[in-house]
TrEMBL record:
Family: Belongs to the RLP family.
GO cellular component: membrane
This protein's record includes keyword Protease: no
Organism field: Panicum virgatum
Record protein name field: Uncharacterized protein
One Pfam family here: LRR_8
């Protein structure tokens, strides 16, 4: 039940390689300083922090001793998996099921050792950064149930280690990238459902050249003015043709126009005379 923003101090933990803040009440933006997590920028080795913890423990302040390692549950690849000593090589960030907002930081591409990235069930918006394509070790990628928009970056097809992908229930648009790894994923169509603007395989909606893209504000404004102009021209021609064939209508229209002209002329002349007289009187008084 933690709340508030994710403290930026977490990104100063140089040896942190497994971060799980899922299912809390965190709000605000994802820290831009994720690139400072140095342990996630290179492949874990036998000298990594988690490897030391899973093989040794603390006794008092200074003495290390071997300990028994229990299994650890990790939500990855669309399911809950149990890890024992293998957790030492798991590089993961799980921020799912919170109320995080804002965009996905470009700096995420610096964490090239990530194997699991789960930011589903938040309120993240804007586009998926193209730097995602730098995460070549990524095996599970879940951004479902957010408010992400724009096109899926083509760099996603560069993730050759990917075995689980879930981008469902966002506002993504455009053609789904194709790539050797993306074609062999299981349940491909379910990875993109809930995005009405997406098209192309594995979805049944085709991306044909005749499909019109959503109109932007400028296009809508031009269409509005064009429609108004066409309407005015059609309306004037309709009146002109009606007058051409209806002599009675022409007489009525011209009589009304003459009457209005005379009335306006009289009103202007009278008001002008009154204003001139008042001006002269004020001048004489002064």
């Amino acid at each position: 039940m933690f709340s508030g923003g994710i403290p930026i101090q977490i990104t100063r933990m140089k040896r942190l390689q497994y971060l799980d803040l899922a299912c809390n009440n965190f709000t605000g933006n994802i820290p831009l300083s994720l690139g400072n997590l140095e342990a996630m920028t290179h492949t874990p080795s036998n000298n990594s922090a988690l490897f030391s913890v899973t093989n040794t423990g603390f006794s008092g302040l200074f003495l290390y001793r071997p300990v028994r390692t229990d299994s650890v549950s990790v939500v990855t690849k669309g399911q809950q998996l149990e890890f024992t000593s293998g957790i030492a090589y798991m590089v993961s960030i799980d921020l799912s099921c919170n109320s995080l907002t804002g965009q996905i930081p470009e700096e995420i591409g610096l964490l090239i050792a990530l194997r699991n990235l789960n930011w589903s069930w938040n309120h993240l918006s804007s586009r998926i950064p193209s730097s995602i394509g730098e995460l070549l070790a990524l095996e599970s990628f879940d951004l479902s149930h957010n408010q992400l928009s724009g096109e899926i970056p083509n760099s996603l097809s560069d993730l050759t280690s990917l075995v689980n992908l879930n981008l469902s229930y966002n506002d993504l648009t455009g053609q789904i990238p194709s790539g050797n790894q993306l074609r062999i994923l299981e349940n491909q169509a379910s990875s993109y459902i809930g995005n009405p603007g997406l098209c192309g395989p594995p979805l049944p909606k085709n991306c044909s050249a005749t499909d019109t893209a959503p109109s932007g504000p400028e296009e809508k404004e031009v269409s509005l003015y064009l429609s108004m102009g066409i309407g005015c021209v059609v309306g004037l021609w309709t009146v002109f043709i009606a007058f051409l064939f209806k002599r009675k209508w022409r007489i009525i229209c011209f009589s009304f126009t003459d009457s209005m002209y005379d009335w306006v002329y009289v009103q202007v002349a009278v008001n002008w005379a009154i204003m001139t007289r008042k001006t002269c009187q004020n001048r004489d008084q002064n």
